[in-house]
Amino acid sequence: QVQVVESGGGSVQIGGSLKLSCSVSGYKDFHYCVAWFRQVPEKEREGVAYIYAGGGEPYYSADVQGRFTLVQDKMTLRMNNLTPTDSATYYCASTSCDFSPFVSARGRLDYTNWGQGTQVTVGS
């Protein structure tokens, strides 16, 4: 059974940094993908970063490109230069996948296993 558990988050000042980690377990090999999403009330959930567990470069949404970095070590999402618009509940998600479809979709796949979410608040 696949499990996805986020950790990290919290409150930070504008321009500050935070780190989110995602523990993913239950897969027998590295043929799976991990993504970070975020959601604010009354808005659709949006994907911000995607990575293939077996290696390769991650993909990012335009809103976070250059500020967020996703690394395979604990599927950590490093968030820099945060602004109030980054405030949201952040979710980690995973799905079984192969590398070629991941690349073709730039990570935008149907993620089937979700964590409980962690809050990020950016304020003055």
Secondary-structure topology with pairs:
Blueprint: E1 3-8, E2 10-13, E3 18-25, E4 32-39, E5 46-52, E6 59-60, E7 68-71, E8 76-79, E9 88-96, H1 99-104, E10 113-114, E11 118-123
Parallel strand pairs: 2-11
Antiparallel strand pairs: 1-3, 3-8, 4-5, 4-9, 5-6, 7-8, 9-10, 9-11
Top keywords for this entry?
mainly beta; 7-stranded mixed sheet; 4-stranded antiparallel sheet; 11 strands; single chain; 1 helix; 124 residues
Can you put this structure into words, describing what you see?
This protein is mainly β and about 120 residues long. About 5% of the residues lie in helices and about 50% in strands. The protein has one helix at about 100-105, and strands at about 5-10, 10-15, 20-25, 30-40, 45-50, 60, 70, 75-80, 90-95, 115, 120-124. Strands 2, 4, 5, 6, 9, 10 and 11 form a seven-stranded mixed beta sheet that branches. It is globular, with a radius of gyration of 14 Å. The mean pLDDT is about 95.
